[in-house]
Amino acid sequence: MAEDGASQLTAPIVDISGYLADDAQAVPRIASSIASAAHSPGFFQITGHGISSSLVSRLLENVAAFFAFPYEVRYSVRSSKLTAFRGFEAMGDQRIDKELVDCKEGFMIGRETSPEDARYLQGPNQWPLGPQGQDFKHVMMEFHNKMLGLSKVMFSLVALSLGLKEDYFDAFVDTISMMRAHRYPPMTPETAKNSRGIGEHTDFGALTLLLQDQVGGLEVFHRPSKTWHAVEPVEGAFVVNIGDMLERWTNSHYTSTLHRDFWIK
């Protein structure tokens, strides 16, 4: 259920399988669809991306298992232990909207980097001990590496959508990537007065790739009407969100859209 009578928004769905298959006829159509969606509303969903449903299922199962660990196990790998802020984020650790509390838990990872070679927000990851912790590590890193590959694909498609050479952003994508898993407990109408799953914000990076489960909760702000709209999950799809950096790179031709997570049970 969305707040303020927010209606459903069908984010444009772009099948990128033709690009991955080197289909010369499909690529201009894909690039055009991305150009339209990235300009407004700044959100779209991609299918045909090559990430297997079995990997997604294993990821969701292991993420659910992690958040079911005893709190002391999760807290033992809290993100504040590392300067790269990788690991467990407890309820209330983040507050995106200064007026409202973020009602979520999270776990953040990135590329494994030695402390000696690390740049800002880079470094080693940390994981829970024991067999379940190892299972969690393996599937999270497998998914992270797949998403790095998909991110490079998306930057190539964004370049084409702007009328640029396909490799235009290649120098930009060896970057400080972050992957987060979040758990949003359902809220009641009473608790929703003072909290959100995550408060309204834009993403500071260039591109965000988001996997929703079937519960949903993502809402985006429609600037012309100044209304919030729920983005219904599409099975097997990833939501692509234009971030502040890409809006800046394109001189606001592509839009970094205000969004939040909000779900009342």
UniProtKB/TrEMBL annotation:
Q: Which residues form the Fe2OG dioxygenase domain?
A: 175-265
Keyword Phosphoprotein, does the record have it?
Answer: no
Keyword check for rRNA processing, yes or no: no
Gene3D superfamilies assigned to the protein according to its UniProt record, in alphabetical order: B-lactam Antibiotic, Isopenicillin N Synthase, Chain (2.60.120.330)
Entry superkingdom:
Eukaryota
This protein's UniProt keywords? Iron, Metal-binding, Oxidoreductase
| Record Pfam families | 2OG-FeII_Oxy, DIOX_N
Give GO terms: molecular function aspect only: metal ion binding; oxidoreductase activity
Descriptive protein name: 2OG-Fe(II) oxygenase superfamily domain-containing protein
